Amino acid sequence: MKTNYLFPHRYKKLGWIILIPCVVFGFFTVITDYEPEFLDVQVFALFIDGFLGEDKIIGFTGNNILNEILGVLVICSGLLVAFSREKHEDEFISKIRLESLVWATYLNYGILVLAMLLFYDFTFLWVMIFNMFTILLFFIFKFNWSVWQLQKSLSYEEQH
After folding, report:
1. pTM of this prediction?
2. Are 155 and 149 in contact (CB under 8 A)?
3. Could you report the per-residue pLDDT of 45-93, keeping only the tens digit for each?
4. Nearest to 81 by CA among 147, 18, 15
5. Which one has a higher pLDDT value, 47 or 106?
6. Which end of the chain has the smaller Cβ count within 10 Å, N or C?
7. How many other CB atoms sit within 10 Å of the CB of residue 136?
8. Containing H/E element for 97?
9. Are 11 and 65 part of one and the same domain?
């Protein structure tokens, strides 16, 4: 089966090398509210809500860009991990990939519906922030778990 939409297999390893430390460091920054001063910069922004200042549609605002850097790295590396070919990409792996994506989408939106019913105000905003990443992380978990289960069963069958 031709899978033009997948990255070459070699990108999966690079994705893991970037993804794991970024997720760990991302949780650390959220828990400790860590923001190094050298990342406090003026950034271009659309729709600036000047909480106690003036509101602007377009302009520059001060921001610590650590969260943005980590967010972009998690998304890009997660895409490399999730959508790189397997060493032996075949129709069954494609089926597992599709089923994992559907499973991750259902789980992600199930959590979102529960969050809409149970969380409000800034707590809901935090849930939405994490929800940006969960569909990708759920997919990575489910797909790799299913491939591991497949390899385990094939290995067992070869032994017996």
Report:
1. 0.87
2. no
3. 998 887 777 788 898 988 999 999 999 999 999 999 999 999 988 999 9
4. 15
5. 106
6. C
7. 20
8. helix 91-118
9. yes
